[in-house]
Design a protein that fits this description.
Blueprint lengths: L15 H11 L8 E6 L5 E7 L8 E5 L9 H12 L3 E6 L20 H13 L4 E6 L1 H13 L7 E7 L5 H8 L5 H21 L6 H5 L4 H13 L4 H8 L12 E6 L12 H5 L4 E6 L8 E2 L7 E2 H13 L5
Parallel strand pairs: 3-4, 3-5, 5-6, 6-7, 7-8
Antiparallel strand pairs: 1-2, 2-4, 9-10
Helix pairs in contact: 2-11, 8-9
C-alpha cells in the first residue's frame, strides 16, 4: 500500500500542546455540502448522519467517526471528508448520540466502548452500497472502531475493506487520568463545558436516574464517568467502564487491514499504551507510533497560511490501498 511522505512537524506548530490544539483554534476548513439523514434506531431513538455523495457509482464510501464531544462539524472530520472527496469517494459522517445538535430521545448516549450504533450503521450502509466501505475513527471514535472490528472478527461485512484509527486512547482510564492532571486542564475544561449541560438535561428529563447535585459538582473526567457514564450504561463505576471499554483486548480479533496511527508525545494518550505486541502479532494491523504529532494533530507544512494535516492524507493513502486504488 502506498503511503505519504514522512511526517515533519511544522516549524510554526512545535510541541505537543500546539500540535493538539492548532486545528481547534486556527483551522477553518472549507464548508462541505453535507446532506443530512436521520435514521431511526431499533430502540426508537435516532442517529444523524451527514453524507457527501461519491463522484461515480462503485467508488468507495468512507465512514468517519469523531472523537469525544465532536461531530461532523469537527475540523478533522471535515478534513478527512475532504481527503475522501479528492479521491472521488462518498462520505458518511456519523454523529454519535447527543452530538448532532439535538438531544436524543432515550437515556443511552455514546461512550468509548459503545459499538451497537456503529454495527447498526454499517449494516444499513452495506445494504445499499455498490462499492467498498472504508472506516476512519479519531480519538474516542478510533477506540469504538477498533473494538467493533475486534468484536466482529471474521463476521465484518465483506464490503468493509479497510480502517484507520488515529490518536486512539487505547487505555481509557490512563487517558482520563491524563485529562485530570494539571497538564490536561485545557482539554478537560473544553470537554466538561460541553458535557455538563448534557448531564443536567438528562437529570432534569429523567428524575431519579442521576443525582442532579452531583452532576453540578462534576469537575473531572473521572467524576463524569463515575456519576454519569457508568450509571447510564450499566457499569459498576468508572474503572469498570474503562476496563470494559478499552479496545486493547479486541485487537487480536481484527480481520480487516487496519492502520493505527499515534504520536509518542500525545498529551492525552500515553505512548506506553500503544499496542506494539498486538501489532507485531497480527498481519491485519499496521502500527505507526511517531515521535511527534500531538493528539489528532500531525500538523506539517511550510507556512501557517497553508498547513498540511498529515494524518488525514496518511489515512486516505492507506485506505486507498485497501480499496485497491493508488495512494
Amino acid at each position: 500500500m502506498e503511503g505519504t511522505a514522512p511526517f515533519h512537524p511544522a516549524w510554526f506548530c512545535s510541541g505537543p500542546m500546539l500540535q493538539s490544539t492548532w486545528g481547534s483554534f486556527f483551522r477553518r476548513p472549507r464548508p462541505l455540502p453535507w446532506r443530512r439523514e436521520r435514521w431511526r434506531t431499533p430502540d426508537e431513538d435516532f442517529l444523524d448522519l451527514d453524507f457527501l455523495d461519491p463522484r461515480r457509482p462503485g467508488t468507495p464510501t468512507l465512514l468517519v467517526l469523531h472523537g469525544m464531544e465532536g461531530s461532523s462539524g469537527s475540523h478533522y472530520v471535515q478534513g478527512m471528508a475532504g481527503e475522501a472527496a479528492r479521491h472521488g469517494w462518498g462520505v458518511a459522517a456519523l454523529n454519535f448520540r447527543s452530538c448532532s445538535g439535538e438531544p436524543n430521545l432515550t437515556t443511552r448516549f455514546y461512550h468509548s466502548g459503545e459499538t451497537g450504533d456503529l454495527q447498526f450503521v454499517v449494516e444499513r450502509l452495506t445494504e445499499h452500497l455498490d462499492g467498498p466501505l472504508l472506516l476512519a475513527g479519531f480519538s474516542l471514535g478510533g477506540n469504538v472502531l477498533l473494538k467493533w472490528l475486534g468484536e466482529r472478527g471474521g463476521e465484518v461485512p465483506a464490503a468493509v475493506r479497510g480502517a484507520a484509527a488515529i490518536s486512539v486512547p487505547f487505555a481509557p482510564g490512563e487517558s482520563a487520568r491524563r485529562l485530570d492532571s494539571p497538564g490536561g486542564a485545557l482539554f478537560r475544561w473544553s470537554l466538561l463545558s460541553s458535557l455538563r449541560p448534557k448531564c443536567r438535561h438528562v437529570a432534569r428529563r429523567y428524575p431519579g436516574l442521576l443525582d442532579p447535585e452531583r452532576v453540578l459538582r462534576i469537575r473531572t473526567i473521572a467524576e463524569l464517568d463515575r456519576w454519569y457514564t457508568a450509571p447510564l450504561h450499566g457499569f459498576a463505576d468508572e474503572e469498570d467502564y474503562y476496563a470494559r471499554s478499552s479496545c486493547l483486548g479486541y485487537l487480536p480479533g481484527i480481520r480487516v487491514p487496519t492502520l493505527l496511527l499515534s504520536a509518542a508525545d500525545d498529551p492525552i494518550v500515553p505512548a506506553s499504551t500503544f499496542p506494539d505486541e498486538a501489532v507485531q502479532g497480527s498481519p491485519w494491523l499496521t502500527g505507526e507510533l511517531l515521535p511527534r504529532g500531538g493528539h489528532v494533530g500531525f500538523v506539517s507544512g511550510r507556512s501557517p497560511r497553508s498547513p498540511v494535516y498529515w494524518a488525514e492524507g496518511r489515512a486516505a493513502a492507506f485506505l486507498a490501498g485497501c480499496a485497491g486504488e493508488g495512494g
